[in-house]
Every structure is written in C-alpha cells, then in structure tokens.
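note to self: dont lose this again. the chain is below, predicted strucutre after it. 210 aa total, dont forget to put it in the shared folder this time
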Amino acid sequence: MITDEVMSLVDQGEMLPLMEEFYTIQGEGYHKGTAAYFIRVGGCDVGCHWCDVKESWDAATHPPTAIGSIVMNAAKYSDTIVVTGGEPLTWNMEPLTTALKAQNLQTHIETSGAYPLTGIWDWICLSPKKNKLPLADIYGQADELKVIIYNKHDFVFAEEQAAKVGQDCILYLQPEWSVREKVTPGIVDYVMKNPKWKVSLQTHKYLNIP
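---
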C-alpha cells in the first residue's frame, strides 16, 4: 500500500512511478543511433489507440521510485538521458532534471506536450497527439516535432502542428509501427514533395533492440 507520504513525494517529483529504465540506442528522430539511457515514467491519459506501451498508462502499477536512485543508475551508463513514458510531464520533472544536470548529464524528453513543461531540458521532442493537444507554451521550445502517421488525415494534422513550432524546430514524420508497410510509401512521397519534413523510422525495432 502506498502511503500518503509517498504520494506527497510523487506529487512533488521527488519520487516517480518508474516503469522501466534501460541503456540502449536512440532509435528515433534527430539523435537516432546515439547511445542513451532511457527512463520510462508511468502515467498517461492521452489514450492513443495505437500506443505500443499501453502498460505505461496506469501509474499505480509502477512503483514510486526515489529520483536519487534513478539518477544514480543513469549516471553509470551514459551522458545522454532520455525521459519518456507514458507522459512524463504528468509529473513535476524539475527535481529529476536538476539532479541529472548536477551529474553533468544531457537531458532529453519525449512528450505529447499535453501538460505544463517542467524541468531543465537540453532537447525537447514534441510528439503531439490529436486526443489531447499540446499546451501553447511548449511549441516555441520544441527542438524537434515528431508526428506519427497512422492515416492520411495525419498529414493535415502534421501541418497544423508544424505551423505552431519555431522556425528552427526539425520536422519529422514517423510511420506508426503496426501500419508501417501501408503508410511509409505515402510518407516518402510527402517528404519528397515537402522537403521541410524528414522521415523518422523506429530503427531500434528494425535492429531488434529495446
């Protein structure tokens, strides 16, 4: 049973519902091919029907873990730390990122932007979802915009989102894995006609690594 004291620490960001943590190769976006330590935080109410980590949604199924322990493990493996979920901004990321930066680690986040941006970030990957759109403030801070393409209307959504980010934000279209063979040709064609976009693939899945 989780005590009120523990829940208070979770609410403050001093503990986080940790789903998993692992050292691997970043498979997506601008930093693909880079060794990185991933911290996957539980909790998400965005509810994408094609989500490949639905087991992350219920924060209550993941043990509240002290950020000191998380940071200690991360520092053993890599200079680049990727915080993902779930939706990590469900929680206050300030304590975690402050502790990571104290160890001179690079902090990256992948977020839907549906909650207020907290924490100190060297790289922000904004991956907006139709179910729960990003808050306005995060668009101008995103380093890369990654839109998942599941159907043809997602190209329209992608352009709507691209119109809101800064001019230096890198734009990616990524096929949703379960329909990749169906949608990838359309993505290739779209990027060739609209070269402001780049193709992002989940290369870690092709490499059969986490």
